[in-house]
Design a protein that fits this description.
- The N and C termini lie far apart (about 120 Å).
- It is built from 4 helices and 14 strands.
- By secondary structure, it is an alpha+beta fold.
- Strand 1 and strand 2 form a beta hairpin.
- It folds into 2 domains: about 130 residues, Immunoglobulin-like (Sandwich); about 110 residues, no CATH class.
């Protein structure tokens, strides 16, 4: 059946009369096309971008080459692949610095001219590969570069000839504390590393340990005599007038209580104190003074003394030896 032009026009007019008004115009359609094109260009820029860690101090500082001057693509935050993780041991005391998540550098008290033996176990991930690594001492500044650390002096160990295989790698470092390392001074054990990936040389630097000078002078002759007399009086009152050994460490009240199990950290945690530790056969039987009076027997007697007044602040008796080496808390003195 054929339809002439007049009949076709009539049918079209009838159909158009029954149809609703259009929901968008030609201009609306053009605007939608432009938005689609902009989204496609944005995704292309995002795919070309490279994300690098950018957190200072105990986490990471970025390593990036110079820019070209052209505007960079903007993308939403993405998860950055973790770098190595570390186990740091300084003169026998160990701490863990994870690749990501909580955890940071442990603080160690050191004294002028002290010789430190530092072991760093680096656990390298399978991806991305760690292509280069430097370990050394910094003075409060992290300034990584593509060709190695800018402010690491001295550099104590390097691994730059070949990528680190996935797994654990052991580095043994030796460092002498500067002779002029006085109160308020600090240094940091830092690591810089480079990673493989689409942006060669991307990496970061982070702090693994803090070395600080203890507050004020360590021990005066007068303090040594008074401390020894006080703890020997305590030992005699706990039925062991001749303990096997007596050690004193100058530290802070917070570290003395937290590290040695003396209870919760007090509000005056920064107060300078002497922590005195004695090993002997202390018993509550016939004891004449606290903390032994009425207490169960113990092998270790702990006493905290105010460094300014030499007044006794607290003491406790236990069978547990010191949780950490006393040298890690501050300068020590043998009072035996």
């Amino acid at each position: 059946m054929t339809i002439d032009e007049r009949e076709l026009r009539s049918r079209l007019e009838e159909t158009a009369a029954q149809a609703e008004a259009p929901r968008f115009t030609a201009d609306d359609l053009a605007a939608r096309v432009r938005r689609i094109r902009r989204r496609r260009r944005s995704r292309a820029l995002i795919g070309a971008g490279v994300l690098v860690p950018a957190v200072v101090a105990a986490i990471a500082i970025p390593l990036l080459g110079g820019g070209s001057g052209e505007p960079a693509g903007i993308s939403s935050p993405e998860v950055v692949p973790p770098g190595p993780s570390y186990t740091v041991t300084v003169n026998g005391q160990s701490s863990v610095v994870p690749a990501i998540g909580p955890g940071g550098p442990t603080e160690y008290y050191v004294t002028p001219n002290e010789k430190l033996t530092i072991t760093v176990n680096v656990t390298a991930p399978a991806r991305p590969l760690t292509t280069a690594l430097w370990l050394g001492i910094t003075d409060g500044v992290l300034a990584p570069r593509l060709d190695g650390p800018a402010d690491m002096n001295p550099i104590l160990a390097t691994s730059t000839h070949a990528p680190l295989r996935p797994g654990r790698h052991r580095f043994v470092l030796h460092w002498s504390v500067p002779a002029q390392f006085g109160p308020g001074a600090s240094r940091q054990l830092a690591v810089e590393y480079l990673l493989s990936g689409p942006e060669p040389g991307a990496g970061a630097e982070r702090i693994l340990a803090q070395f600080v000078a203890p507050p004020g002078p360590a021990f005066s002759a007068a303090a040594v005599g008074r401390l020894r007399a006080a703890v020997l009086q305590e030992a005699d009152g706990c039925n062991d007038p001749r303990p096997a050994w007596i050690m004193a460490v100058r530290t802070t009240l917070g570290r003395a209580t937290a590290e040695m199990g003396g209870g919760p950290v007090p509000d005056n945690a920064s107060q300078v104190v002497y922590l005195l530790v004695m090993k002997g056969d202390f018993t509550g039987a016939h004891a004449t003074m606290p903390p032994c009076a009425g207490a169960a027997a113990g092998r270790y007697l702990y006493t905290v003394v105010d460094a300014a007044t030499l007044g006794r602040m607290s003491e406790w008796l236990t069978n547990r030896p010191p949780a950490v080496r006393l040298q890690a808390l501050g300068p020590t003195r043998n009072l035996t």
